[in-house]
Amino acid sequence: MDKLKVLFVCSRNAGRSQMAEAFLRRFAGDAFEVESAGLDPAPEVLPLVRQVMAEEGLDLSGKKPQSVFDLFRQGRLYDYVIAVCDTATAESCPVFPGVTQRWRWPFPDPEAVAGTPEERLAKVRAIRDMVREKVERPFSEQTEA
Fold first, then answer.
1. CA–CA distances in Å: residue 47 to residues 15, 121, 133
2. What residue spans define the domains of the chain?
3. What does the DSSP assignment read for 56-100?
4. By CB atoms within 10 Å of each CB, which of 32, 38, 66, 135 scores lowest?
């Protein structure tokens, strides 16, 4: 059986989609091919996101945000395209041929958190925990088969 292909999409591929990709890779191992991309990619993964993911043992320091449109132009095919932010709705994402499932999981934007450094870190940790919980749940039956 071919591996299921999953693409996580958000606006800048600097936070939520990177978290989701990393958690699914850890959770599912080799059961899935997983990538993430953004509509308007940032120059780098957010430092606070790298920090909170490192706390989970996941190193995002070498990850570079990529464009969802570049993947589309390369002719990539996915079984699941999952938008993880409000701006990456089905209407604003390219149509990937052969996609069997499109999901929308809105999460707060780590780039938009405000407050003291400690408050910002706590908010990004909370977003990380929401992403982890959401990612692990729907794919569990796929990995048990």
1. 9, 10, 22
2. 4-139
3. TT---TT----BHHHHHHTT---SEEEE-STT--TTTSPPPTT--
4. 66
**Which DSSP category does 42 fall into?**
-
Indicate the burial class of 88 (C-beta count within 10 angstroms; 0-12, 13-18, 19 or more): buried
- Domain 4-139 listed as CATH 3.40.50.11540: no
Containing H/E element for 8? Answer: strand 4-10
Q: Point out the residues that are catalytic.
A: 10, 85, 93
pTM of the predicted structure, to 2 decimals: 0.88
**pLDDT tens track for 14-40:** 999 999 999 999 998 888 999 999 989
